[in-house]
Each structure stands twice: as structure tokens, then as C-alpha cells.
Amino acid sequence: MLTYDLESRGNLARYDYLYRCIREDILSGRLSAGEKLPSKRALAAHLNTAVVTVETAYAQLEAEGYLRAKEKRGYFVCPVEVRPTQGELSAPEPERPEPVWKLDLRGTGGGTEGFPFSVWAKLTRRVLTERGEQLLRAIPHSGAPELRQAISRHLYRFRGISAAPEQIVVGAGTEYLYNLLVQLLGRDRSYGVEDPGYSKAERVYTLNGAKCVSLPVDGQGVPVGVLEESGCQVLHISPNHQFPTGVVTPIARRQGMLRWAGAGEGRYIIEDDYDSEFRFAGRPILALKSIDQTGTVIYVNTFSRTLAPSLRIGYMVLPRTLLEVYRERLGFYSSTVPAIEQYTLALFLEEGHFERHLSRIRLFYRERRDQVIQTIADSSLAKRCRVRREEAGLHFLLELDTDRTDEELEAAARKEGLRLSFLTQYSRRPDQTLKHILVVNYPGLEVEKLKEGLEVLAGLLDR
Amino acid sequence: MLTYDLESRGNLARYDYLYRCIREDILSGRLSAGEKLPSKRALAAHLNTAVVTVETAYAQLEAEGYLRAKEKRGYFVCPVEVRPTQGELSAPEPERPEPVWKLDLRGTGGGTEGFPFSVWAKLTRRVLTERGEQLLRAIPHSGAPELRQAISRHLYRFRGISAAPEQIVVGAGTEYLYNLLVQLLGRDRSYGVEDPGYSKAERVYTLNGAKCVSLPVDGQGVPVGVLEESGCQVLHISPNHQFPTGVVTPIARRQGMLRWAGAGEGRYIIEDDYDSEFRFAGRPILALKSIDQTGTVIYVNTFSRTLAPSLRIGYMVLPRTLLEVYRERLGFYSSTVPAIEQYTLALFLEEGHFERHLSRIRLFYRERRDQVIQTIADSSLAKRCRVRREEAGLHFLLELDTDRTDEELEAAARKEGLRLSFLTQYSRRPDQTLKHILVVNYPGLEVEKLKEGLEVLAGLLDR
After folding, report:
1. CB–CB of B283/A78 below 8 Å?
2. Could you list the pLDDT tens digit for every one of the 463 residues in chain B?
3. Is B96 contained in some domain?
4. Same domain for B193 and B225?
5. Cβ contact (<8 Å) for B338 and A338?
């Protein structure tokens, strides 16, 4: 007779424990195929438990295919493969920790400074109270109407873009939206990406099976001639503050790009506007989308950079001509951003918190930038470097006077615990004009560490 | 001299309004290429405003490429393309509203019943208070450690799966995770999907450029022979409660599937466990992943079904052998679920709210199901139908006695405002055994509407 100690069951229900014991005996071969199990009544008496316990355990084993019930004859063990060993074999492998840097010019760092967390928390609480259980219902695939309305108003006021709420698609970050874009526009097309440029977009396109073409950037962005010769059909650019060069594409070239897009079937421009909010004089550069009359510009932006990295909310503006195919092809996807965040962000935008926050952090970052630039001017490095493209964005360029190659400097600095980020590291082509130029992501920099780091760096410039 | 009425600027800053006016004049051709603009001082005097206002407007126009400053000579209009018309041309096109059904057997409906919203709201508030600004920082790409730990414990207790937290990847819903899986396993492989089956998975794979093969399901799931002949490398199955047939794959066939996966290089099984929680007798069917010793099973599940559709939180368990390539290839992606939801869900799991919720809704759905089945038994349809596969899940099958084809019945019912869902609609092959079988998604059904609908349906069974 099967004997198990039901008192050893811990927190498990009796039937559950019994089920596990018998299953284990079948999988280990202690009970073999064809063997007849004791009757429910007999086993229950033997184990000093209720018949219903055994009944439930047997029913579960039958449902999972371990036992077969034959009418009026009882339960029999099914033929199963007997388990040779326990568990997966390979050893656990912990995640590699990020190295700790004395100074990290590459790390995006910061990004949460000045975020009015208490306002956000208050709005979240308000949404919980006011919307209540309505928050549980699924929201439309392209986002909550309230949020799309608020983004539409914001885009009009802040970026000069006239976009109806139905043109706006909200998603869990821009990387997710790039994925959708390949599925929308097709992976059989060639995607032109800026060189030097933002590598994540290229990675996402490549991972999605699309072919990427590198387009060299000059002092105004991608030249239209280069674009025309490249044979690419989809152009991914950051015309308002190119990453990492900081170049702004002037109106005439923008018009040239739009002409290019309008001239060929199925050509599109993806305008990546990820840090246009951080311009320190005047107003942000007007979006390319704002002058798009060809209906070829897809505008993409995120709140991860302006609000907080942990808030994965990005959005895109689709041209009207793409709405039909978008709904047809991708309309079955569920919205990827939880309802609570969508409604909270809608309130945050509508009540003016976002614009106030932007004004505040623009000031904050301007001061931080000035402080970092002053620290450089006061350091031993000062005579051997020049700051460039510091008018906007959360990084600037630092041109170094050195004879060492970028690779040498990078490796030497790494040994000293400094993480450098050179323009050449964002490029695929050998270009003399890109050399010896550091990309300084300043929001996360601490002045004291920076001072020390600059002295170390100054000492590395010569062999 | 340029003349603009600065008093018409509304909420805009003076410089911003002036900038917009001049830009408009350049784009409309009223100011033409090469034309010299008045000096800052002269224009400021003319418009009765401060010099700094004009200066800022000119600087903005220069930054955007509308003007060029020539040293000591002033500002000149750059050559730009003059705008022919306003805005995008195609007319707005509103989203099509969903039809309103008198009775909808297909709609997933419901899904938020019994959700302890007040507990969730309380936990959210607690997370806001306790974690504070820490919530703003980016979280690891595969999810917050606390949540992965909680999921790991839940999987062990509830699904028999031993998975270390580092094997768990949290993402914004299962559809998003399917996208990641194609990028992880490759789109050059052939993905085997169940027929009849859950069409969204197939759609996502196809949209990602992968080839899908339909694998016919019998009374135990996909037969191993079919699998072997299909030539597929990745098998997507729902062995614990197949959608839509409700079939449970018994242990012996599971072992056969694992043997198949272990026998070929790069073979994987994606175990879609989307509604295993809803089993109304005994305990949930043990997951295939729980007996996987080959390291080939990727387990996928979601909280959208068990908690609320608006909470886009899914997760997958990767075999250890895939962790390295996952980090290498997809580790750059940001986590798609906001920090607040991740920490709230972690608490919800750790404090036992989830298990209590599951017990409650299992009871709730069982009663709802019984009520729906009783309503069918009491209707005129009763003599011409049989309920099947009602032991688990949020749908059951209803076999109809009718000579009309499924297409005819579906169309006739549609005219009466009834939305029917036939097993044949989930299949790509003509299979006699699938005919005349309705899939009844019962959670959203209202008894009164159901009564009326059943009478209408009974009247349609004969031509």
C-alpha cells in the first residue's frame, strides 16, 4: 500500500501533498506503467484521511495524464518517461555587475533632478481615487484618449505640431515604438541612420531584421545628396539636436529632406526628438514635423528623458496616410502603458506641471552645464581643450589637443577608472574631423569627481 | 519695415510671437531669400519693444536656419522653399467605433471582477510613500529584482516551476514578450503554432518576419509525430489549457514534446500559460516548464488576465542556456513596465493578496460559469446542444446540432446582433470535427441578454 506521511505536508492542502507524492513516485519509476492504485476508500483509510482527499488527488493525476481511470476497475498508472536527473543542469550564472567608475562621461546619469515627485505622487493618488475601478478596464491600443489629447495640445504649443489625438500612439518607451515602426513600414526596406548617431535605434532596426545604412552627418545633419545616393527608404534623424554631434538641421536642408521623402513611393522620415526640450536660449528648435506637408514625417519622443527614466512612456505622431494601415496591421496590440500612468501623465500635462517642470530643469541643467564648463576652464586640461555645441541638450562636445588616438586614450583612461566617450565611438567610418572629440554627458557629473578626473585626463594626453 | 502687432500675441512671449511672425513671412514668401532684415535696434524701436526681444527672435531664426547673420552687416533671409499650402492634405478620419452587440460570445469581457482595487490602490500609495524618488531611477532591463523574486516564489508554489529570479524577464504584456522572443530566437526559424489556436501569437510572429507553421491539435494537444514532420524549430503551445479547444496535454505527450525539443539543435518550446489559474477542481495543471530538464522550455504568462487588462505586466522564464545571449542581444532594452507597477505587484504577490484574489475569482467564475450553463440548460437551445470542456478556463465549448454551416450561422446571427465565435474560425484547415462548435467566453455575459440571445440562436439552427 502507498504510504505517505501527510503530516509532512507543510502549508500544502492534504490532497495537493498526496498528489505530489504519487506524481513523484510515478516520475521516479517507483510506481510503474500499468500498475493499479489502491481504491480511494482503501488508501484514505490507510493514510487516515478523508476519501475526498484521495479522490481529488486521483482526479488531478488523471487530468494531468499520470493516471487513467477504468470504469469499475479503478485507477492505473499511465506509461510515462522515468526521470533520469533533477532540474536543469547548467550552473547558475549571476548577472555581471556594472563597473564602478571614478568619473563617467558616458553614463546618462541624472535625469531625475528636479522632478516634482510630490506632485506626481499627488496626481497618482487623485487618479486612483477619482477613476477607481475604471482604471482596470483595457484602454485603446494607441493610448488613453485623455493622454493623446493632452499630448496633442502640448505638441501644438511646444513643438509647433498640429496633430489630432488619433494620430498619436502612446507606447512603453521609444525602443518599443521603433519595434512597431518596423512592423508598420516593413523590414524589407532600408533604414538610413545617422553616423555618428544614436546606436539604440540602429540596434532595434537590425534586431527587427531591417537593413540599416549609415549616413554621414555634416555640420547641418545628413546631406540630401548623401540621402539620395544611399538608396534608403526610411530616414531616422534627430534634426533638432543631433546625437551625439549636437548639430541642428537648418530649415533649407529640412525642406530638402521633405522633398526627398515626398518624391518616392513609401519614403518616410522618423524624427527622433528626444532632447529638444533642453535648449538653453530662446525656444526649442521647431520640429520638422511642424512643416511636414508631405505626410511623410513620423515624430517620436519620450517622457523618460524629461520626467524620469523609470516612467516608460513614449509616443509617436503618425501621418494621416499611415493611420489606416496602422490600425489594420497593429491595431490588435494592447496598449503597453498601464492606465494609471497614462491618466496621471494626462493630468500632469493638462494642469501645466510639465511646462513648469521643463522651465525649472532647463534652468537647472543650464547651471549644471555652466558649472561643468567652468570646472573644465579651471582645470589643467583647459589649455588643451575647447567646448563646443553647448547651446542645447544634455551633453556637449569637448575637443582635445592630443596626439594619442581615441582608442589609446580611452584604454589609458579606463585603467584609471575614467570612462570616456568619443565621437568616433558613435561612428562606423574613419573620419578625421570626428577625432579627439569627447562627448560629455554632464547631468550626472559631480564637480569634485570631475575635478580629479580632469587632472588625470590632462596627464594622459601625452604618451 | 516689418510690422507686427505684438499685442496679438496671446499667451506667447514677445520674442516667441515675433519669431513666429517672421518665420511665417519667410515661409510664405513675403520675405524673400537674400533680403536684409532691419537692425535689431531699428525693429525694436518700430515695434515699441525691447532690443533683447528682437535679438532673441533673430537668434532663434538663425538657429533654425531661416536667417543668416553676416558680421557687421546684419541678418539676411536664407533661401528656403516657399510653402504652397497649409497642413497635411488628407481629411481627418475618425476611428471606427466597435459595433454594439446584443450578445457577444467572442468578446473577452469581464476580467476585472473581484479585483481588490482598494488593496491595489493602498499598495500603490504605500509604494509612492516608501520608495519616494527612488521610483524615478531606471530599473534593470529584465525587471525590478523584488518583482522577479516574488514571481519566482509564486511560480514555485503555484506552478511547480523552479526558476531563479535572473531567469525571469518582466515586460509590458505577452505580446511584447513574443516580439522579444523572435529577436532572441531568430526570425529565420519556423514557428509552430496550434491549429485551432490563439491567433495573436501567430500575428506577432508573422509581423516579426518569422515563418509560422500550423500544427493540428488533437484531444491531447499537438501530436509529437505532427511536430516532427512539420520541420518547425520553435513550438508555441498552451499545454495546460489549450485555446480555444480547452484540451490538456497529458504527461506522456509532454515528455514526448520535451524529447523532440532536446533532440535538435536550437529547438525551443514556448509554453503559453495564459489562463491556467482558472481550473475549477483540484489544483492547476502543472506547468510543462516544471518538468523541463532539457532547458528548452520558455514559460510565458501575464497578469492582465488574472488582475486587470489595463495592467500590462507579463513575464517569461528563460532557460539558463539562453540567459547569456539574451543579455548580449536584448540587454540594452529598457524595462517596459513602470517602476510603480513593478513594486506594487511585488508587494501584492509577497503579501499573499494575489493568491487570495485567485481563490476568490476562481469561485466567482465557477459560479458565473454554472449560471451560464444553467441558463443554456433552461433555454430552447438545450435539446440541440452539449457543453464541453467546462472544467477550466474562462471559456467552454458548446456543440450545436445544426445542418447549417458555421459561416451561415455566423452571418445570420450577426444580422440579429449576436456575435458568435466558432472553433472553425480559429482554424486554417477544413476539419469535420471542429464544425458546429461554439467557443463561449462567459465572463462578460449578462444572464438576461444571454437568455434572449439563446432563443434567437435556437431559431436560427434550421434554415
Report:
1. no
2. 788 888 888 888 888 889 989 988 888 888 888 989 989 998 998 888 999 899 989 988 988 889 999 988 899 999 888 875 444 434 444 555 667 788 888 876 556 677 888 999 999 999 999 998 888 888 999 999 999 999 999 998 888 899 999 999 999 999 999 999 999 999 999 999 999 998 899 999 999 999 999 999 999 999 999 999 999 999 999 999 999 999 999 999 999 999 999 999 999 999 999 888 888 776 778 899 999 989 999 999 999 888 888 888 999 999 999 999 999 999 999 999 999 999 999 999 999 999 889 888 888 888 999 999 999 999 999 999 999 988 888 889 999 999 999 999 999 999 999 999 999 999 988 888 899 999 998 888 888 999 999 999 999 998 7
3. no
4. yes
5. yes
Best residue of B68, B205, B283, B299 to probe chain A, by most A CBs closer than 10 Å: B283
C-alpha closest to that of A202 among B210, B172, B332, B140: B332
Asked if B208 and A209 come within 8 Å (Cβ–Cβ), the reply is yes
**Domain hosting residue B25, numbered range:** 6-77
Preferred mutation among B22, B24, B88 to probe A, highest tally of A CBs within 10 A? B88
What type of residue is A118?
S
Q: Is residue B155 part of a domain?
A: yes
Asked if A432 has any chain B CB less than 8 Å from its own CB, the reply is no
Tell me what ipTM this predicted complex has: 0.83
Q: Is the pTM higher than 0.90?
A: no
Amino acid present at B454: L
Give the Cα separation of A170 and A145 in Å (integer): 10
Q: Say whether residue B337 is in contact with chain A using an 8 A CB cutoff.
A: yes
Q: Which residues contact A410 (CB under 8 A, 6 or more apart)?
A: A420, A422, A425
Torsion over CA: A57, A61, A64, A70 (sign): negative
Considering the domain architecture, whether residues A219 and A272 belong to the same structural domain is answered as: yes
Task: Find out whether B438 and B421 touch, Cβ atoms under 8 Å.
Answer: yes
Structure-block grid coordinates of residue A168: 498619436
CB contact under 8 Å between B285 and A339, yes or no, is no
| Beta strand pairing call for B437-441 and B395-400 | antiparallel
Burial of B99 (0-12, 13-18, 19+ CB in 10 A): exposed
Task: Please check whether residues B279 and B391 belong to one and the same domain.
Answer: no
Nearest CB neighbour to B200, from listed A15, A81, A332:
A332
Of B80, B136, B208, the CB nearest to A117: B136
Q: Cα distance from A191 to chain B (closest Cα, Å)?
A: 16
Residues of A in contact with B128 (CB under 8 A): 121, 124-125
Domain boundary among A351, A382, A397: A351
End-to-end distance of chain B based on CA atoms, in angstroms? 83
Of B252, B304, B335, the CB nearest to A80: B252
Residues of A with Cβ-Cβ distance to B93 under 8 angstroms: 166, 320, 323-324
